[in-house]
Every structure is written in C-alpha cells, then in structure tokens.
Design brief:
By secondary structure, the chain is α+β, with helices and mostly antiparallel strands. Helix content is about 40%, strand content about 20%. The protein is built from nine helices and 16 strands. Strands 1, 2, 4, 5, 7, 12, 13, 14 and 16 form a nine-stranded antiparallel sheet that branches. Strands 3-6-15-8-9-10-11 form a seven-stranded antiparallel sheet. A hairpin with a 2-residue loop joins strand 12 and strand 13. The N and C termini lie far apart (about 130 Å).
Amino acid sequence: VGRAWLPVAESKMAVSMQRGCLVGGNVLWAALVCLGCRLLPPAGASSLGAAGGAAAQPHRRFEYKYSFKGPHLVQADGSVPFWVHTGNAIPSADQIRITPSLKSQRGSVWTKTKSVFEYWEVEVTFRVTGRGRIGADGLVIWFTEGQGLEGPVFGAADTWNGVGIFFDSFDNDGKKNNPSIIVVGNNGKLLYDHQNDGSTQALASCQRDFRNKPYPVRAKITYYQKTLTVMINNGFTPNKEDYEFCAQVENMILPSQGYFGISAATGGLADDHDVLSFLTFQLTEPGKEAPIPDAEIPEKDKEKYQEEFEHFQEELDKKKEEFQKDHPDMQGQPDDFYETVSDRELRQIFEGQNRIHLEIKQLNRQLDMILDEQRRYVSALTEEITKRGAGIPGQQGQVSQQELDTIVKTQDEVLRQVNEMRNSMGDTLRLVSGVQHPGSAGGLYETTQHFNDIKEHLHIVKRDIEHLVQRNMPSNEKPKCPELPPFPSCLSTTHFFIFVAVQTVLFIGYIMYRSQQEAAAKKFF
C-alpha cells in the first residue's frame, strides 16, 4: 500500500494548478497557470492514450452479485439480494435511499461477499437533492478490504484499507471549493481529516456540482493495471455516455479482494442521497482467461447454499405430504392440479372467442332495434303521404311528391342494407360458434363500421322527414296555444257591498266598546 503514495505530490500539483485557474489571486499568475492547465494533459493521460492505441481494451464481464438496479430491487422481506444495508438506509423498489433529508443521519449499503477479481469497473447512478442552496454532507463509493458498516466517515468506518471516492457537498474548511470529488486512499492506519475535507489526504480531486441536477448523476470508476480513473456525467443531459474526465491516480495498489459499498451522511444541513443503480464489471487483460464462475464461489459458501437447498427441499416434501393428507381425492394426480402452458393458452383462446360471441350478439340485438325503428319511420311516412296527398295544391303537390318519393327510396335502400347487415351478423355468429379462428376480430371491426354507417343514414332520413313535414304543413294549420276558458266569478256585487257594510258596523261597535271601557277605568284614578 505504501507505493500508493508516490503520485501524491504530482496529483496535488495538478489540483493546485486547476484551482489556480479558478480562484487565483494574481491575474498574471492565474493566466500563466491556466495556460499550463490547457497545454499540459492530465496526469497519466499520455500514458493512457499510448496504452489505448497499442493495447486492446480489457474484457468486461458483468458481476450480478456485486450489483443492484431497479425495478423490483427489494425482496418481500425488505432486503436487497447480495447486499446488506445499515443505519438509516431505506431500500425501495427502484432505488436505495442511503440517507433521507433529515439532520444527523447515516446509512450505508455493502456487498455481502468479497470480490475475487483483480481489476474492476463500477458505474454508479445517484441523485443528491435538497431544498437549500447548500447541502450536506455527501456520499462515498468504497472499495475496502473489510465492510465499513457504520462509522464517522460519511456513515462508514474510519481507518479503512482501500480507497474511497468522496462526493463532498459541504465546505468544512471554508475554501469555497465544494461540492467536490476527492479520491482518498488509506492503508488502515490513517484517520480521515474532516476539518480540511480530506484535502490533505487527497490523491486526486476535481470540482463538480452534483446536487439538484435535472438528470441522475453517473460516476464511472475504473481500476485497471494499477491505475484508478474517475469519470463523471454531471446529469445535465439524458445521454448516459456523456462522461468527462475527473481524476486519475497511477501506481495505486489496492487489496486483491474487497467489498464494494456506498455510504452517506447528513449534518446540520440535509440532502436526500438516492442510489438508483450500482453496476460492477470484472476487467480481464487481453490474452488472459477469466476465472471459471464455479471457482469463484468459496467452499464455505457452497456448503451453505447446499444446506439451504436441502432444507428447502425437505420443507417442500413435507408440504406435499400435508397437502395429500388434506386432499385425498387428488392423490395420484398431483401434477394435474396446476395449469400447464398449453392449457392456459387454450383457456385464453376460449375466453377470447366467448367475448367475441357476446359482442356479436349485442350488435345483433342493436341491429334488430334499428330495423324496427326504420320500419316505424316507413309506416309513418306512408301514412303522411296518404293523408296529405289530396290537400296539397298542384305545383306544390308535385314537388312534395318528388321529395317524398326520394325519401321512400332512401328508406328502402336503408332497409335493404340493414337486412344484409343482419344476415351478415347471423353468418358471423354461426361461424364464431362453430369454428375458432383469429379472423373474427376483423369481421367484428367491419360490422362495427357498417353499424356506424347505418346510424348516419338513419339520422339523415329522420332529418329529411321532419323537414318535409314542416314544409308541407299549411299556414292555417300551424298549432296555436289553446284559449283559456272564462274565469268564473266567485263574488257578486250585492254580496260584496253587504260584506263591506257588516265589516263597517262591527268595526264601529268595537271602537265604541273600547271607549266605554277606557272611560270606566279612569274613574278609579
């Protein structure tokens, strides 16, 4: 691990040059440094280009036991296959929320087994979202010799042996260089420098804002031929392959076997740290054969899986015996209890044919109703012709007769179409009842089209008939409101005067009585 600290000085120099381009105090010095940043390639870029041109790309193989991705990410018991989560991590169907946006939260998720391949590549898709302009604290992608399930370093253990890629969103040292991405290595003896955001221990870093992006942020971390490379997709576009260079560390020695993990933490400020996917690939050098999958499983794990399989098999046999005891009538035919693929397909075919049969019956009933209504229209039209044939003047009678003849012909044509449609429906119904074939759906569609055409013809005919009746109605026969009968008189004049006289006498008598009562009452005062 000691050889991993060789590129520290070179990496820090490159970082200081990059920061000088951004926050240099002296204008001339900043200009010269920026010119150097543009002219000089990143550390290791030339060697990578030469190596890429001379050597072939490594063989990539997906490792599902060290990966997770939605949907259906979580099992029924709330666990993630091949992974273990601790702290405040909340797995769901589409993602794992490492920490919610609450103060002082810690969480992590780690692989259950160690990786057995030397070189690897991980692609992590995540979101860091919060309400404020500044968030905290961040998340870390780990590859360590042991599981750092809980601890003070962004929710993971300190003094790890391996590497951590820190996505630090809070500026602890006050240098205004956050959010930033920092690569920190450890040999199991160093304590993480929280006060300086790990800048004193950083092997490489870059400044990237990964909070509140329109699309998920993607990080591609590659460890191949003792070189660690970090590529970032900032989440500004939906293009998944829109990566840009962030950092690189050469001559880095990592443990040959280790655990992959991702952790996050919040402080006084809080963000939601959601990981959508963690995909791991094994990288094999050209010309070398990948290890056999069976050889990757340790003997202890094989024995454990075999014991679990035998235990499940025994439970299944017990349940079969209990089922046979509870259902003696089904003994001897245990396989017939379940539906086979062919039976299911046959059942679906019969159900589809039955639905088509019912739809055609419903259409047939509607056609019968239309035919009856059409016959009533024809009868009403014939009666109207008979009644008004003699009362129409000569020239007007000739024009009206022509219009009536046109309507009658149209009605006959509609009747003929309805009869043909009804016959066609009957043939289709018999065909569906006798023979099963997928072409019935087309016939049903054509039947529906004919039915809509007939409805349009009927509306036109009805409108023409109403227009004809209104046109042929004489002006003197227009309906009028009925005259109201004379309103009967309830009180005669004599009775009225008698009633008024009686009321007057009663009123005068009441006034006189009231005056006498008041005069008698005054005598006592």
